[in-house]
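Let us work through a complete example step by step.
Step 1: write down the sequence.
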Amino acid sequence: MMNMRYFIKAALILRKTVWFIVRSLLTTAVVMGLIFTYAYKLEPAWTEVREQKVYLEGLPEAFEGFRIVQISDLHGRHFPDKKLVRQVNRLEPDIIAITGDVLDDDPEVPLEYLESALGGISARYGSFFVFGNNDSYPGKELVSRRLEELGIKVLINGNRPISLEGGNLWLAGVDDPRDGKPFLSRALEGVGEGPVILLAHSPEIIDSAADAGFDLVLVGHTHGGQILLPKVPRVITFVRKGYERYVSGLYTVGNTQMYVTRGLGMTKIPMRFWARPEISVITLYPK
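Step 2: predict the structure and record it as tokens.
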């Protein structure tokens, strides 16, 4: 009789244990499925318009409230019905800064993508582009020519002044800091009075840019980490050792400020988690 009671009790405990394990596995599978769906389908399409005020020494009063809309790292992402163009134009930018990797290093993202993604984009004082490490496969001359046809000015180790009554703001751009030939000295040739903003693709330019005296640097490349997990080292690292801390947002190195956008697309792993795509709006004020 005692053996029977012991057996029944043991069987009940075993059944509860098995049910607990099965329920835990099912719950884990459901949670992981939801996370996967969110990271694969939802977050990559959930673009944030992120506002950032930047205060610059010597900025003429005429430029107070000057709006720079920065987009970066599209990596061939599809925007149906010109959605990106409509979003950007609605922000009424003074200038648009496109900081590289619009294309992907893949023939499946053809040159025609530039028109479908960026055709019709418009800013009061112009749109400007610098190359990233994934933009060159069709050839820089072809890419540059197509962008210029779309009204987007390409800056490769050069600069353009933006003049308003009462002063100038200079916009400089360099070739990709990783795979190109960036020459900051050339980008500064002929620069006169007024703050200088540098467009580059990767935050790896920051030390050289700070040494050269740029006031503000706008970069992308990091995707904001793309996949971020609490208390877990980043799954994807896009920068060389020593630059890992420049993930997204505003940083200061010496007298130079740098804004790192999370960008809009993905690479390596077609997911985003805790690193929403971003259209950045940089508003300038005198310091």
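Step 3: interpret the result. The first helix runs from residue 2 to 42.
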